[in-house]
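Q: I'm writing a short methods note and want an example of a predicted protein-small molecule complex. Could you take the sequence and the SMILES for pyridoxal-5'-phosphate and return the bound structure as tokens? Please keep the output block clean; save any remarks for afterwards.
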Amino acid sequence: MAASIFTAVPRAPPVAVFKLTADFREDEDSRKVNLGVGAYRTDEGQPWVLPVVKKVEQMIANDNSLNHEYLPILGLPEFRANASRIALGDDSPAIKENRIGGVQSLGGTGALRIGAEFLRRWYNGNNNTATPVYISTPSWENHNSVFVDAGFKDIRTYHYWDAAKRGLDLQGLLDDMEKAPEFSIFILHACAHNPTGTDPTPDQWKQIAAVMKRRFLFPFFDSAYQGFASGSLDKDAWAVRYFVSEGFELFCAQSFSKNFGLYNERVGNLTVVGKDTDNVQRVLSQMEKIVRTTWSNPPSQGARIVATTLSSPQLFAEWKNNVKTMADRVLLMRSELRSRLEALGTPGTWNHITEQIGMFSFTGLNPKQVEYMIKEKHIYLMASGRINMCGLTTKNLDYVAKSIHEAVTKIQ
Ligand SMILES: Cc1ncc(COP(=O)(O)O)c(C=O)c1O
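A: Understood, no commentary inside the block.
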């Protein structure tokens, strides 16, 4: 028999966050805690099906007018329209002027990928691979790979996190924008920056927008946590809406994985804001070509759940309450962890735990301290020191705080 044609295939390294969860599952220690994966957990440490989602799922199951025919290539029209409305706001000038469009996608990742594929084909000249794409340092690790796989050859980083002050490096960020070649693409986290939990203030966003406008830089927003940062959908969409009000053309990749708890249904939307109806329609016609060869047409269940919820005032109100429940639990865990660390006298300052927002906190633990937490304490967190606040519960808070205290005092 001839050797396998796959003999030369090298083994790819595992995806860190999924590997961490697999290691956690195998760990038999009863004290184990998973602070790695980016998903909401209840105070019992369990996944949460939002009550509004359960209700709408039953409505869908009982609706005999629905079937399993293919959706249009760009997705369910009422989902796309409502999803874009959530991002841009009811009063959006771009919606009123009919110069927006949506592409239903497989999660936020799908929206980023379809957006990246489009930009590579059509932005700044045809088949453009040389335009620089700027990603924050640090960022969600998939940003880089998505743009590389879409064909971009010049992926760069921009300053974002100031480790010493545990906050935003605004000057570094603005300097990088000043230096970037005109028409570069910038990936911006719309809110609840992953992994740092640190967002620009409205005033800082204004400064960012001013430089981007002057330097002709393209904003590609990634909105994966709308509602999680402040508990309010409108507040969390402030930056995107401000850029639209400033006349930018932009993309916004929306994920409904976290704020609807629909992780495995793969529900996302790429909102496109253009200058006029005609150019948005032309853009969408090209998006259709890209989707056709990627997943041909999207799945319906998650999109129906989101569309039904967003188009009914009563269900919408219920959803907002569900989002607030999740956001409030995160806020509570932040203040409880901070007060425990301060009560223990853990060296360093811990105000960043409550100042950071969204699902994650960038603890400041170094890789050796993280290793200690995993190996000695069975507490799983990313090597960057990022923890998912939802992994904390009233039952494991004391243990986690004492373990952080030990890690910081014993390991330098
Ligand atoms: C910043 C960021 N963008 C996008 C995504 C992708 O979300 P989805 O699971 O909907 O593809 C995530 C998920 O963790 C994220 O953290």
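A: Remarks, as requested: Residues 38, 107-109, 140, 189, 194, 222, 224, 255, 257, 268 surround pyridoxal-5'-phosphate (CB under 6 Å). Residues 77-315 form a domain with the Aspartate Aminotransferase; domain 2 fold (CATH 3.40.640.10).
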